[in-house]
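Anyone up for a design puzzle?
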């Protein structure tokens, strides 16, 4: 992801990306996927934050979920968190499934393709690009 979009996500969801500057956290390596998944990640983080904030009683007793991995692997989004419950894990799974239908370059409708030994999710316009 471009540094500008990565910074935008980190600033918009500081509690989710709280360990971004921690050298010992895997998220320190950044959000490693194409710009086309920015909206997907933004929506996922918004939903996680809204869910956490909506249950004020539970949020007093549990730790805030924190991102530890945000990357592309085998053409799909891999997003992992600590302190996530089953509901949040369901949101993450849904985003993983949606990423197989969204071009990682531009965000248009795409599909998983195999090109030059790599698995990617691309639209018709970006199928031949690495």
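Challenge accepted. My sequence:
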């Amino acid at each position: 992801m471009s540094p500008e979009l990565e910074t935008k996500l980190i600033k918009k969801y500081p509690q989710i990306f709280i360990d971004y500057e921690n050298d010992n956290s895997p998220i320190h390596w950044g959000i490693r996927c194409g710009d086309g998944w920015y909206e997907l990640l933004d929506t996922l983080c918004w939903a996680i934050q809204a869910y956490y904030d909506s249950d004020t009683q539970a949020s007093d007793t549990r730790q805030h979920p924190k991102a530890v991995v945000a990357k592309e692997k085998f053409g799909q989004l891999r997003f992992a968190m600590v302190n996530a419950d089953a509901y949040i894990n369901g949101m993450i799974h849904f985003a993983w499934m949606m990423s197989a239908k969204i071009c990682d370059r531009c965000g248009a409708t795409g599909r998983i393709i195999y090109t030059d030994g790599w698995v990617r999710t691309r639209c018709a316009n970006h199928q031949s690009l690495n």
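A detail worth pointing out: The beta strands are 66-73, 76-82, 111-115, 118-122.
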